[in-house]
Every structure is written in structure tokens, then in C-alpha cells.
Specification:
It is a single chain. The chain is built from 11 helices and 5 strands. It is α/β, with parallel strands linked by helices and 233 residues long. α8 crosses α10 and α9 packs across α10. The protein is globular, with a radius of gyration of 17 Å. The relative contact order is 0.10. The mean pLDDT is 83.
């Protein structure tokens, strides 16, 4: 059957079939979302994504054969193919897995979702990450980032690189980065700074380039690590 225009194609990766079934039911109830692949471990996920056009992967962390972190790194680290863009990965997590989240971002994940999040939050997360114009803002991502960064060691191995990138930002780029870290979309940032959304997009592109960040989530982590944003602000 031909897929409707604009439908976001989702792959579910979790070793619990019941969890996948619940997610599928919620996702497939939406006219703009469709589950096109399922996998019970990371190795199956790599094969499924190679065989199917996928936009977003919901990836569990703890799985047999190949865990979610390793699978994410392989997915996002694959050579770029203009004909089949690399899918974006949302890590499925719980607070007791916080130690894995920063590693997941560095592996290439674009966001996180708590496994017990309400259905509407999961749907919003998928759409937000697919759209690419905001971190998964008001909910789990910010809480997890704040919880994580509070526990970060004082000296990180990447600190020198992090601060060098931040030091190269203009004052306006710093303002935009801080607003990104607070979960603001491009449209909201434009309204806050009284500039056009297209101008914000230009700033965001320059920020990502200067910070050598793969996406907005990585840039936000850098903002926290560099002290531009503090937990609870």
C-alpha cells in the first residue's frame, strides 16, 4: 500500500514484545505516523533499518546481542547516503539508566523518552525530533539533562574542546544556544529575540558547526557542560 505523503516512518527496538505492541498501537493511531519495522535487539535493528526506509528509531538501551548504545553508534555512524538519510534515534530510558544517556548522545542519539511517559509525550517526541527544530523540550529531555549534568565530573575529557567551541560563539549565538538549551523552538527563539525564524536557523547552523555538534541535543549538552545553562534555570 502506498504511504501517505508526509508520514513519519518509525522503527521500534525493544526486547519486550508487549512494550513494542503498546507503542505500535499508539503510533499507528496517528494519521501522520506509521510503524514500519520492529526489532528485539540492536543487531535486528540494524538489519531492519538497512532493509526499510526509516525516519525515527525508538531504541531501548538494555537488550541482548547488541545493546541500544552500540546500535545507535552504528546507525548514526554509517556513511551518509543522500538517497536514504540516516534515521534519528530516540533513546528509551528510565531514571535508573541515567548513566547511559550522555553516552547515548555522544553515540548519536537525538533525544530521550522515558518509557513510562504519557502517549501524547511519546507522539510529540517523535514529531519534534523528526522536525529537527527543537530538543524534546518541556518534559523528559530537560529533566534528564539537568539530572545528568549535575552528576558530571568536574573535569571532562572533552572539556578543552567544549570550551574552545563555546568561546568561538558570538554573543547572539550564545543567546540562541541558551534558548535552545531551555527547549525553545526556532519560532519561539525568533519571537524572544525579535528576529525572523530564518535568521534563527542560520544561527543554529553556525552554532552546530562551531561546537562540532551533530544536532541540537548535542549542542544543549555542550551548553550545560560549559556552564552556559545551570540545572533548574
Amino acid at each position: 500500500m502506498e504511504q501517505p505523503t508526509g508520514v513519519v516512518r518509525v522503527a521500534l527496538v525493544d526486547d519486550q514484545q508487549l512494550v513494542r505492541a503498546g507503542f505500535r498501537m499508539v503510533i499507528d493511531s496517528q494519521p501522520d505516523l506509521e510503524v514500519v519495522a520492529e526489532a528485539g535487539d540492536g543487531a535486528q535493528a540494524l538489519r531492519a533499518v538497512a532493509a526499510t526506509d526509516v525516519d525515527i528509531v525508538l531504541m531501548d538501551v538494555r537488550m541482548p546481542n547488541l545493546d541500544g548504545l552500540a546500535a545507535t553508534a552504528r546507525l548514526t555512524g554509517a556513511p551518509a547516503d543522500p538517497a536514504r538519510p540516516t534515521p534519528r534515534v530516540i533513546i528509551l530510558t528510565t531514571f535508573d539508566l541515567d548513566e547511559y544517556v550522555l553516552e547515548a548522545i555522544r553515540a548519536g542519539a537525538s533525544g530521550f523518552l522515558l518509557k513510562d511517559a504519557p502517549p501524547e509525550e511519546m507522539l510529540a517526541a517523535i514529531r519534534t525530533v523528526h522536525r529537527g527544530d527543537a530538543v524534546i523540550a518541556p518534559s523528559s529531555t530537560r529533566r534528564l539533562l539537568e539530572h545528568l549534568v549535575t552528576a558530571l565530573p568536574a573535569e571532562d575529557a572533552t572539556a578543552g574542546v567544549v570550551h574552545e567551541g563555546v568561546a568561538s560563539l558570538t554573543e547572539r549565538e550564545r543567546e540562541v544556544l541558551v534558548l535552545m538549551a531551555r527547549g525553545r523552538s526556532n519560532q519561539e527563539i525568533g519571537a524572544d529575540l525579535f528576529v525572523a525564524e530564518a535568521t534563527v536557523k542560520t544561527h543554529v547552523g553556525r552554532i552546530l558547526a562551531k561546537l562540532a555538534a551533530r544536532d541540537r541535543v548535542q549542542a544543549v549538552v555542550t551548553a550545560y557542560e560549559a556552564g552556559l545553562v545551570r540545572p533548574g534555570e
